[in-house]
Design goal:
The complex is a heterotetramer.
Chain A: E1 5-16, E2 19-30, E3 34-38, H1 45-52, E4 60-65, E5 68-70, H2 75-80, E6 83-86, H3 98-103, H4 112-126, H5 141-154, E7 159-163, H6 171-186, E8 190-195, H7 198-204, E9 207-212, E10 215-221, H8 227-235, H9 238-251, H10 256-263, E11 269-279, E12 285-295, E13 299-303, H11 310-318, E14 325-329, E15 335-337, H12 341-345, H13 352-358, H14 370-383, H15 400-414, E16 418-422, H16 430-441, E17 452-456, H17 460-466, E18 469-474, E19 477-480, H18 491-497
Parallel strand pairs in A: 3-8, 3-9, 6-7, 7-8, 13-17, 13-18, 15-16, 16-17
Antiparallel strand pairs in A: 1-2, 1-4, 4-5, 9-10, 11-12, 11-14, 18-19
Helix pairs in contact in A: 4-5, 8-9, 9-17, 13-14, 14-15, 15-16
Chain C: H1 2-22, E1 32-37, H2 46-61, E2 64-69, H3 73-85, E3 90-93, H4 99-105, E4 113-117, E5 126-131, H5 134-147, E6 152-157, H6 162-178, E7 183-188, H7 195-207, E8 212-216, H8 218-231, E9 235-240, E10 251-257, H9 259-271, E11 279-282, E12 289-293, H10 302-317
Parallel strand pairs in C: 1-2, 1-3, 3-4, 4-5, 5-11, 6-7, 6-8, 8-9, 9-10
Antiparallel strand pairs in C: 10-12
Helix pairs in contact in C: 2-9, 3-4, 5-6, 5-10, 7-8
Chain D: H1 2-33, H2 41-59, H3 61-85, H4 90-113, E1 128-129, H5 139-144, E2 145-146, H6 148-166, H7 168-178, H8 180-185, H9 190-217, H10 228-238, H11 243-265, H12 272-289
Antiparallel strand pairs in D: 1-2
Helix pairs in contact in D: 1-6, 1-9, 1-10, 1-11, 2-3, 2-4, 2-9, 2-10, 3-4, 3-9, 6-7, 7-9, 10-11, 11-12
Classes of the chains: A alpha/beta, B mainly alpha, C alpha/beta, D mainly alpha.
């Protein structure tokens, strides 16, 4: 395997304001390979690739494309040189049609028919099918991701950078993506896969590069490393790495604890839905006749593809959505961790204390006792290891992981009897995800209060690692998934996701 | 140089300039600035303070004229109540249009400003015209409807005190109460307020709209009760629009609105002096006001930039 | 907050200290006259002729003058006070709308004479100029009716103010005195400065076959001149100032208030101390109000001009009164 | 029968009144589609009025229009510096620009023309009847006996609509207003697009002012823009941020004003204030009745660099 280097960045330094984001970061990507760029949140992965894509200009360091030194003044130049990037938070204009999003950035006359034809051609060649006329905002998450890739391919991208592509996909979709990336690389294309999920990376990559705190700490062919070595390189602390490894091991035996619990399950019901229907404002039925009980001590895992009804199910259980029909039984306070943190969980411009107060804003009366709120904020910060957290600090100055830890900590306190979590580890690094899952797991025993937990994730591994039983949403219905004889067999879950029994 | 000296003298050069010119002019701006800030804080773009002021003036005038010579305390209180009601009714139309039909308040409030001006123009030639029916204005209010002056021999009236108290109350309310916090949360992140806090966003916004209109209405009541003692057309030279700059310059902080309203009041009072004493045309005054506002904007913008750098996000 | 308040108190104290030291009484014996106008002095009508009056006072009497454009009733009062405090001898508020302010401020500054143009209030140091603007308006009506082909005419105002209203009534009475069946349309622009709206309103009136338009809308009225000039087939009549030169080819004449003359009359009396506060009636007899036919067009028949001249002579002699009540 | 005779003048007046409003509103539309709300539009209009007056007096109407456009752009450029370079609040900066322009033009007018004003001495462009087309009964004179500016508008609306939806630049503009991150990722230079959009709005605002002076009134007076900038902003909302919608909304406003003038000329014995309020009431009713999604660009009004 002596393929030449397609993209090489070396000795890159970059800072945001006073924060040094990258310091001597390097990566060498060979043509025709899938290259995983690994690191925890804040390690500088995205920054490094944004430099490669011309969105940022490095303070120091060089970029070589196919052996030639380049200096992009803008991403337009990078695109022209055959680089395409799919951002973690997609760069789609939701109010525009798919074909318009693909055409975005073109100059001169806009020939949407020709662009649509190109999309069809790409679809034929790659299997990435998107309806050109579809409104981007109406597409499912995986379709949006396909659209992003199509966008790059229509512009003849030879090098494709994907930022955390697996975070929003179901296992099947992720497998499909992996297959496709492999196919693309085999055809001579080059892929850089930014991720913090070691397994995801190892499953598909030929080579990998690990960044830690803005520096390249590991550079290797896939074949030459073990999962443990990568985790240690990423965390830089072998004890944390060890803890994570234990967590992963547990997740391989997902239903062991669940079976035990269910056999003797006598917890009192905390959350209950009785013949619940939800019809949205456009008249579409989102939940149809759902009856469900969740007892104290249970962790109900919820799986389902976009639009299958999981979103509504969680919100009805959390009391954030009133059913059109049927009755809901729930405690006065249900902790809720919504997926879209920056829009639904926190007010970015508010301080940590204000964001703590936010959780009770609807019910609060009279004056607010800020001193007590500050004290509680400090409690959450220390109890949940919110780095750089201070009561008066604006929450948007924290990293995503630390914001999420704060939100989880806040809801942990509120949801003494019930907690509903929606993709709570999305975009988090190993350590932060680990901490979040810990809280979810803490349903009973020991010194923590026993409660009912509802946990939804697009990562099946994650669901199986914490759930005591699993339900699948499909087309507005909710059905319990019976595990296979072999606990490691995922088939029942995969079938439930597509509505097969 | 003479002109600038005149500007300063006219704004702060004498006790009269301060208490009878600057602060009197600052009063409507203070109250309207609070009305605008309250609405903006809730994410509600109420551009209609102008019309709400006019309708408040109508309400207060109607109260003053119909109560005649009742005891002053009663008349003044009735004017306050009627002014607030007039303003709230007017903002209520925009609120209703928003809730019932989804009409953006930015446009409906501008339209309502024009309509209010036409309505006042008709009222002073119709139902509220003085009894000889010659002049397009109401009768002069009886003495009991004249709001008390705050300082003997000066023109500064009760309206300013109400404005200052209201500013402090509003500030306290925003900072210390659950209701105020809810409004801030709705304005800063409506979805999070609803999802994380269970706040009823729509009804919070409606309430804010009504209260904002009521405060603007009080500004109208203060203008007729404290200054003109009769209802005229052309009562406001666009206070409602200036108040937006007043509120934004204060970064929607009620305490700072006291300062920025005085700043604008001083600019206008000083500008009048520039015309009188230095014979600088009225329009130059607008240039000065604009330049001062732009200057303040530029300075704060540069300061913000430095702040942003210092707080550089440690996440990607 | 406390800090903020304290800051204000300190600034205030400092300012007062410096202000008291530098303030001059401002009374060095010069005759000082101030004018308040409700609109810009570039309107070629009401406000601009008042400013010319102020300049006339300066040039003829050597007065020190000051002018300010004011918008709101609150400003009327404030500026009356400021001029009073500065020891001005004569302060003219140009319009009836200044009369309430004069009534309130006058007593506070007994050494200043406050005069409003229009209005009816007087006091020890408060006077009003009353223009018999309806007299020349009546004549304009006669002249207009004599040239109207369609038998439809129009009056176009800025907003409906008492002098405008009574002038329009007199115009109508004059027209009917010679053509009882003539139709007269009335429209208001709603403000005094939107010239484009003035033009459109004039065009709308012309589309209703009005062929003489008597406009009284100051700056907005300029649009009406433009409309008639562009569309032709109609005459326009100017108001307040001599507007015959604005659009000479289509202007029938102007109903003029000779404000420079009027202001000078009053200012002279004030300067030599002979002024007695009263409602000063300025009419055809005192030659302050005039119907001025446009000399560049010769459409009025001798019969018509003779008729108007005859009525004018009778009016001066006191043997003729307008067939309607005079407005203040 | 008589009412029928009034139809042509009414339609004619509707279009004439709509023309300056449409120019200003189309300019504002482009700016808003790029995410910038320009409350300085009123200032651009008055600057256009004054620039047109000054230059037309020297070099004739064509020069007048050119300078009017440039004057509007000059005001817009200052606005752009504040909004895009200093990243200040758009609403305050816009308000200040309007004040500045009203003051500057008024002052210069006083200095250059004195208290006597400019009279009606400015060369103007009158209506020009299109041969043939203007002979069509009723609508012919209404549509084709207008000033050349109205014809320019006929061309500008489809051109702008085509540009916005059929060119890469138009697509880029819309993307910048909807989601600047997406535009950036696609290699679009967002500040450049916004500069272009703001200057375009200034140019069209200036053109609107020049039209008022050179094709309509023939003179200048202080504050003659008379709130048209604010009405234009309302028109953009009423037109739901589409080119054709905005042009239609401008026409609705033009018609409402024309109807107002006509009502008064009909000698109906009602308070005239009722007629003056009519266009604004009509707008409110239309906004309530014409249902549908309000489609404000998602980035509209956000301070540059806040997201």
């Amino acid at each position: 395997m002596t393929r030449e280097a397609a993209l090489v960045l070396s000795g890159i330094r970059h800072r945001f304001g006073r924060t040094l984001a990258l310091d001597d970061a390097s990566i060498a990507v060979r043509r025709g390979t899938v290259h995983a760029l690994l690191g925890e949140n804040g390690a500088g992965k995205s920054t490094l690739m944004r430099i490669a894509f011309g969105m940022l200009r490095p303070e120091h360091g060089t970029i070589h494309l196919d052996g030639d030194a380049v200096a992009f003044a803008s991403s337009a130049e990078a695109i022209a040189q055959g680089i395409g990037m799919v951002h973690q938070h997609f760069s789609l204009v939701s109010t525009m049609r798919a074909v318009e999003n693909v055409a975005l950035g073109a100059r001169g006359r806009l020939d949407l028919a020709a662009t649509a034809a190109r999309m069809t051609a790409v679809a034929h060649a790659t299997g990435l099918t998107i309806d050109p006329a579809a409104m981007s905002g109406d597409l499912s998450v995986s379709a949006q991701q396909r659209l992003e890739i199509v966008k790059a391919l229509v512009r003849d991208a030879r090098i494709l950078i994907l930022d955390e592509p697996g975070a929003v996909l179901t296992p099947d979709e992720r497998a499909e993506l992996d297959r496709w990336l492999r196919h693309f690389a085999d055809g001579g294309g080059t892929v850089v896969l930014i991720t913090h999920k070691v397994r995801e990376a190892l499953a598909v990559a030929d080579d990998l590069t690990v960044l830690r705190r803005g520096r390249t700490v590991l550079h290797s062919a896939r074949a030459d490393v073990t999962e443990d070595a990568v985790i240690d390189a990423m965390t830089g602390e072998s004890d944390v790495g060890a803890a994570w490894r234990i967590a992963r091991t547990e997740s391989d035996r997902p239903t062991a604890g669940a079976a035990a619990l269910r056999s003797g399950a006598t917890g009192t019901p905390v959350l209950a839905l009785d013949h619940v229907h939800v019809v949205d404002e456009r008249g579409v039925t989102r939940l149809a006749d759902v009856t469900l009980t969740i007892a104290r001590g249970e962790v109900l895992g919820v799986i389902g593809v976009e639009g299958a009804g999981a979103r509504e199910l969680l919100r009805v259980l959390a009391g954030r959505l009133l059913p059109s029909q049927g009755t809901v039984t729930r405690p006065a306070h249900v902790g809720f961790i919504p997926e879209d943190r920056l829009h639904d969980a926190v007010v970015p411009t508010f301080s940590l204390t204000e964001n703590l107060a936010l959780a009770e804003a609807g019910a609060a009366r009279g004056t607010l006792d800020w001193r007590a709120l500050v004290a509680r904020t400090v409690d959450v910060i220390t109890a949940h290891d919110v780095r750089n957290g201070a009561p008066e600090r604006r929450i948007d100055t924290l990293s995503g992981g630390n914001q999420q830890k704060f939100v989880v900590g806040r809801e942990d306190r509120i949801g003494l009897d019930a907690l509903v979590a929606e993709n709570p580890t999305r975009g988090l690094d190993l350590r932060a995800a680990h901490a979040v899952l810990d809280i979810v797991r803490r349903t009973g025993g020991g010194d923590v209060p026993s409660r009912a937990v509802v946990f939804y994730s697009t990562d099946l591994d994650e669901v199986l690692s914490v759930a005591t039983r699993v339900v699948a949403c499909f087309n507005g219905t909710v059905r319990e998934v019976r595990p296979a004889e072999d606990p490691a067999d995922r088939t029942p879950y995969a079938r439930a996701l597509v509505g097969a029994s | 140089m003479d002109a600038l000296a005149a500007l300063w003298d006219g704004a702060f050069g004498s006790a009269f300039a301060i208490w009878s010119a600057t602060l009197v002019r600052a009063t409507p701006l203070l109250l309207l600035g609070l009305a605008v800030a309250l609405a903006f804080r809730a994410g509600l773009l109420n551009i209609g303070a102008e019309g709400q002021l006019l309708m408040g003036a109508v309400g207060a005038s109607a109260a003053a004229l119909s109560l005649g010579t009742a005891p002053r305390a009663i008349v003044v209180l009735a004017m306050l109540a009627a002014g607030a009601t007039g303003g709230a009714l007017w903002s209520g139309i925009a609120a209703w249009l928003k809730r019932r039909f989804g009409v953006l308040e930015v446009i409906s409030t501008i339209m309502l400003n024009f309509i209010a001006a036409a309505l006042v123009s008709w009222l002073v030639r119709g139902p509220l015209q003085e009894p000889t029916r010659i002049y397009p204005q109401s009768s002069t209010f009886s003495a009991s409807a004249h709001w008390p002056f705050l300082i003997p021999g000066q023109r500064l009236h009760l309206g300013f005190a109400i404005g200052v108290v209201l500013a402090l109350v509003l500030w306290w309310w925003f900072e210390r109460t659950a209701g105020g916090f809810r409004v801030r949360a709705v304005g800063a992140g409506a979805r999070a307020a609803a999802s994380a806090g269970g706040v009823d966003v729509a009804s919070t916004v409606m309430r804010v709209f009504l209260v904002s209109g009521a405060i603007a209405g009080i500004a109208g009541a203060a203008e007729v009760g404290g200054v003109t003692w009769a209802l005229y057309e052309g009562l406001s030279p666009g206070y409602g629009y200036t108040a937006i700059a007043v509120a934004l310059l204060a970064r929607l902080d009620p305490r700072w609105i006291i300062a920025t309203s005085i700043f604008f009041g001083a600019l206008e009072a000083g500008a009048a002096a520039m015309q009188r004493d230095a014979q600088v045309p009225a329009v130059v005054v607008q240039i000065v006001v604009a330049l001062v506002v732009l200057g303040v904007l530029a300075v704060t913008a540069l300061r913000d930039k430095q702040m942003a750098q210092r707080l550089a996000v440690d996440a990607e | 907050m406390v800090k903020l308040l304290r800051l204000f108190v300190i600034i205030h104290t400092v300012l007062l200290a410096t202000a008291c030291g530098t303030k001059t009484s401002g009374n060095d014996g010069a005759f000082r006259v101030a004018l308040l106008t409700p609109g810009p002095i570039s309107d070629q009508a009401w406000n601009s002729s008042a400013y010319k009056g102020l300049e006339r006072i300066r040039d003829s009497l050597g007065a020190e003058i000051s002018h300010i454009q004011t918008k709101t009733p609150a400003e009327f009062e404030e500026n009356f006070r400021q001029y009073g405090a500065k020891g001005y001898d004569l302060v003219i508020g140009h319009g009836f709308e200044f009369q309430d302010a004069a009534q309130r401020v006058g007593p506070e500054y007994p050494n200043t004479i406050y005069v409003t143009t229009g209005g009816s209030g007087t006091g020890p140091n408060i006077a009003a100029l009353s223009f018999a603007f309806d007299e020349p308006s009546f004549f304009a009506g006669i002249a207009a009716a004599s040239v109207s082909q369609n038998g439809v005419m129009a009056v176009l105002g800025g907003t409906e103010l008492p002098p405008v209203k009574s002038s329009f009534a007199a115009f109508e009475a004059g027209a009917r005195s010679v053509r009882p069946d003539i139709q007269i349309l009335t429209a208001f622009i709603g403000n005094w400065d939107d010239a484009a709206a003035g033009k459109e309103q004039a065009l709308a009136l012309m589309s209703r076959r009005a062929d003489v338009i008597f406009q009284n809308a100051d700056a907005a009225g300029l649009g009406a001149f433009q409309a008639v000039r562009e569309r032709g087939k109609a005459w326009i009549i100017g108001a307040n100032a001599d507007q015959n030169q604005v659009a000479p080819e289509v202007t029938l004449g102007s109903v003029v208030i000779d404000l420079p003359h009027a202001f000078l009359l009053v200012a002279r009396e004030v300067q030599d101390g002979s002024f007695t506060p009263r409602v000063v009636h300025l009419d055809t007899k005192s030659d302050v109000v005039r119907w001025v036919p446009n000399p560049s067009v010769q459409v009025l028949s001798k019969m018509v001009t003779d008729h108007i001249d005859g009525l004018r002579a009778q009016l001066i002699a006191g043997t003729f009164t307008l067939p309607m009540a005079s407005a203040p | 029968m008589e009412l029928l005779l009034l139809l042509t003048p009414f339609l004619e007046a509707s279009l004439r009144t709509a023309t300056p409003l449409a120019f200003a509103a189309l300019g504002e539309l482009v700016s808003e589609r790029a995410g910038v709300i320009n409350l300085g539009l009123e200032g651009c209009i008055i600057a256009g009025c004054f620039g047109a007056l000054l230059a037309a007096g020297i070099g004739g109407p064509a020069i007048g229009f050119a300078v009017g456009v440039l004057s509007g752009m000059a005001i817009a450029a200052v606005f752009a510096i504040f909004v895009l370079v200093l990243r200040t609040d758009q609403i305050i900066a816009g308000t200040a620009m309007t004040l500045l322009a009203l003051g500057l033009t008024g002052t210069l007018y006083k200095v250059l023309y004195g208290a006597s004003g400019a009279a009606l001495g400015t060369p103007t462009v009158g209506p020009w009847a299109v041969p043939g087309l203007s002979a069509i009964p009723v609508i012919g004179p209404a549509l084709f006996r207008q000033s050349v500016l109205t014809y320019l508008l006929y061309a500008a609306v489809p051109t702008l609509a085509w540009w916005m939806h059929r060119t890469g630049a138009g697509l880029a503009l819309r993307a910048v207003g909807e989601r600047r991150a997406a535009a950036e990722a696609a290699g679009i230079d967002v500040p450049r697009v916004r500069w272009g959009a703001i200057l375009f709005a200034g140019a069209f605002g200036g053109l609107s002012g020049a039209t008022l002076v050179l094709a309509q009134v023939g003179t200048f007076n202080e504050g003659m823009s008379a709130g048209r900038g604010f009405i234009a902003i309302a028109i953009v909302v009423l037109g739901r941020w589409s080119v054709v919608g905005t042009a239609m909304a401008a026409l609705v406003f033009g018609a409402a004003f024309a109807l107002q003038y006509l009502f008064q000329a009909l000698d109906v014995q009602l308070p005239y204030q009722l007629f003056i309020a009519f266009p604004y009431v009509l707008t409110l009713v239309l906004l309530a009745v014409v249902r549908g999604r309000t489609a404000a660009p998602l980035e509209l009004g956000l301070r540059d660099g806040t997201r």
